[in-house]
Amino acid sequence: MRDLIIFLILIALGFTAGTITEKRHYRSIRKREKELLHLPAVTIRKVEYPDEIITSAQLVYGNAVISTDYFKKFLAGLRTIFGGAVKSYESLIDRARREAVLRMKEMAPDASVIVNVRVETSTIGLRANRKSVGCLEAIAYGTALTLDR
Amino acid sequence: MKYTARQPEKNVNVTPSSPIQEFYILTAGILGIIIGIYLILGFAVDLIVPHISPDFENRMATHFLRSVSNDDAGNDPCSYVQSLVDTMQEHCAQLPYRFTVHVRNDPAINALAFPGGHIIVYTGLLEKVTSENELAFVLAHEMGHYAHRDHLRGVGRAFVFMTISALLFGPDNSVSTLLAQSLNITKLSFSRTQEYHADEFAVHTLNCTYGHAAGAVDFFEKIPQAHEPGKFGHYFASHPENRLRISRINEIIDTEGLKRRTRTPLGITPSSDSDGVGAPRDPLGHHPGVSINGTSIITTRTDSGRNLFNVTTRNVETR
What we know:
Chain A is α+β, with helices and mostly antiparallel strands. Chain A contains 3 helices and 3 strands; from the N terminus they run αβααββ. Chain B is mainly α. In chain B, 53% of the residues lie in helices and 4% in strands.
């Protein structure tokens, strides 16, 4: 019984804290995305610019680690039985990737464009202790070009 | 046409849905499955139990044992009770088990049959018995439960249940943990018929071991009417009424013409805290006074259930 109470408290805590954190994070993401709209990040590998107008080309990257919460984890656990979209993890991946891209852009505030952008995802924090709550890591990297126009 | 960068109006990567609603639907689905399995198992246990080999039982029993063996009351009473069981098994009750006796510091007057031949004897019981025959009868009664596989029938449903949920969700999932906790609802109870048969087995074993059947009813006669019933564990609560049992045992002795001779004195002296006041609390956290109807075995089972689930393979999120 005591364990059940602890479990329910963890679920409630996970839900409340998780929701608050997520809302705040999304507000921050949208705000910063708006500020960085002037800097496009594209996936093309080759550019048509003549060499003389490219003043610098540099590797930029940003990564973010976002942790799941107890509630999301439990919901995902239930999902593994019935199948279907694991909606509780969707926002997690979305946040991690957007945060990573944002940080990448913030690394090159003066660039004109970031080309050859790649976004990769991996999980961390699951190996050492299997009981721990898993974390999601997203890394975004690309080549920042500064153009002299 | 000029491209103007702007933010997308809605997030296509996150499904707009209420997590709370999803939580309720999924939990309801799980509960439905659990109840379904539980009902089916209720019918299936009696079919399954005769097919579980003692060897398989022994292997599964390690999970149960982990939570029990750490509170043994010491070697002295333990080895005495163990030798008593060994003698009976060697000469009279040849069961396909290797019985291990665990004496447990607990004022509850009770003995329990755990899967895998682990007999738990509470110190409260050792303090109450006055002759070796009396103690032998109680032990033989537990062995009778093994002979008829009653202990598996009692635990069986929860046991199979735990295994199934571990298979379904993975052993270290929070869902499994919740399941293990909800297993509290099951109860270990022996039916009257099972108790009668165990008594019958015990009388025969007692007679075979000592050459007479004196002391068989001593223990039951000792249970005073007004005594706090919970203290007597399943010998009082889930077992048929005392008078009925005493007369039934006497009936067996009389009809089969078994003799009653002098009782063998007890080979151990009761420990000091015989009133149970200074006795330590059960490490599993329940008060000894409320171990009615084998509650102790239930608590232990829940604990061992957790142990079972802690045997991890991999987590859901591990890729």
